[in-house]
Write a structure and sequence with these properties.
Length: 226
């Protein structure tokens, strides 16, 4: 075979690299260089999901490797979103300074935490021995709850939620219990008026066992009194 007229090549060589090989080599060299100067762990928008992919929490994009993420951070979309976020934070900072000067406390923005699953729970049907009123007692376990976090609860009507058909479930209401970093859980209970007198309705959080108790007693309906 004649190698004389083969530009840039000599006998025994691998040939001239094509455009795709050159581009891949350039990206790899830039990736290694960037990793030496940039610490991804300190990037507030960098997140590695459970599939091993990399996500940009600012732009809501997914990348197959760290090199792709680094290239994204230098792109127009990421830089534009960074500028918008900086402008928004600057504007909110001015509003916050004005509120503090006027003696108004600013609202603390809650940070998004990674949820670790649902808590364990136990539900017991109860009846008041004296009034014969029916009720429920909830016991929820939060073994990995934060040290300064206390579980919270609220009641939601069927027309507030967006999971089930409201008209088909209007005879029910929902008891929501939240405690970070656990997922918020909802219990579907009868849409009856709750007796909130002392001793009838109460909540208790045991910090020693990280258990949260809720007891509620329903008011007696007219049919129950008869």
């Amino acid at each position: 075979m004649d190698y004389q007229n083969r530009a840039g090549s000599k006998k025994g060589g691998g040939g001239v690299a094509g455009w795709s090989e050159t581009n891949a080599d350039r990206r790899e060299r830039l990736r290694r260089l960037a990793l030496e100067t940039i610490d991804l762990e300190k990037d507030p928008y960098f997140f590695k999901n459970h599939l091993g992919s990399f996500e940009c929490k600012l732009c809501l994009t997914v990348h197959v490797n760290d090199g792709s993420y680094l290239a994204h951070t230098q792109g127009r979309k990421h830089q534009t979103n960074l500028a918008r976020r900086a402008a928004k934070e600057a504007s909110e900072g001015k509003v916050g300074d004005a509120a503090n000067a006027a003696g108004i406390s600013s609202i603390q923005v809650r940070k998004n935490l990674i949820k670790i699953g649902r808590p364990g729970y136990r539900i017991t049907k109860i009846r008041d021995p004296s009034s014969k009123q029916e009720g429920l007692r909830f016991q929820l376990q939060y073994p990995q709850i934060g040290t300064e976090i206390v579980p919270r609860h609220r009641f939601m009507s069927a027309f507030e939620q967006r999971i089930e058909n409201a008209m088909e479930n209007k005879q029910f209401q929902y008891l929501l219990v939240a405690a970070e970093p656990y997922e918020t859980v909802a219990f579907k209970i009868p849409s009856r008026e709750i007796d909130r007198r002392p001793g009838k309705f109460w909540t208790f959080y045991d910090k020693d066992t990280n258990e949260y108790f809720i007891q509620l007693i329903f008011k007696m309906d007219h049919d129950d009194r008869c």
